[in-house]
Amino acid sequence: MTEKRKDYISWDEYFMGIAKLSGFRSKDPNTQVGACIVSKDNKILSVGYNGFPMGCSDDDFPWEREGESLDTKYFFVAHSELNAILNYRGLGLDGSKIYVSLFPCNECAKAIIQAGIKTIIYADDKYAKTPATIASKRMLDAAGVNYYKYESTGRKIEIEL
After folding, report:
1. Cβ atoms within 10 Å of 63's Cβ, excluding its own
2. Considering just the CA atoms, what is the radius of gyration of the chain in Å?
3. Who contacts 88 (Cβ-Cβ below 8 Å, separation ≥6)?
4. pTM of the predicted structure, to 2 decimals
5. Do 16 and 123 form a contact (C-beta atoms < 8 A)?
6. Are residues 35 and 81 in contact, defined by beta-carbon separation less than 8 angstroms?
7. Pairing state of beta strands 146-149 and 119-122?
8. How far from chain centre, in Å, is Cα 145?
9. What is d(CA 112, CA 104) in angstroms, rounded to the nearest whole number?
């Protein structure tokens, strides 16, 4: 009898891969973030990436990081986690987990908590010392949302499209 393949990807690799792949849809020239929400039984519920809301043209709104507030992207861009939550069309996200390529900010943490997501798996926490991330972790801890860093296997996966 032939044995099953042993080099298949793990659930964490699979879902983080989906999150990172989703980030490639972002038109942000500086930061591309993706998210993938998964049920308790490892079914993909929703995905999202950072970008402008529907109906707001990518050509008419700013992508700048610096300048006057209304001349930067920060008031206009919806983060990947919020997009994934808003893209979900099911009955509820209670007890689900979210894979995200960048640790959620305080605003996304609020949405994650309110949506009932119970676990966050993140690839990068490069803003760990910023007030937004500190506030995020404080709220997540208070609400009992677990979070942990994805441990990269270093595996390279190439897909021809």
Report:
1. 15
2. 17
3. 37, 45, 46
4. 0.94
5. yes
6. yes
7. parallel
8. 15
9. 9
* pLDDT tens series, the chain, 161 aa: 889 988 899 999 999 999 999 999 999 999 999 999 999 999 999 999 999 999 999 999 999 999 999 999 999 999 999 999 999 998 899 999 999 999 999 999 999 999 999 999 999 999 999 999 999 999 999 999 999 999 998 888 888 88
Rounded to 5 degrees, φ, ψ at 149 are -80, 135
- Sheet containing 119-122, strands listed edge to edge, beginning at the edge strand earlier in sequence: 44-49, 34-38, 97-100, 119-122, 146-149
Residues found in the chain: 161
Task: Tell me if 104 sits within 8 A of 120, measured CB to CB.
Answer: yes
Distance CA 35, CA 127 (A): 17
Distance CA 77, CA 55 (A): 12
d(CA 15, CA 121) in angstroms, rounded, equals 10
Residue 77 tokens read as 């861009």
Residues recognised as catalytic: 81
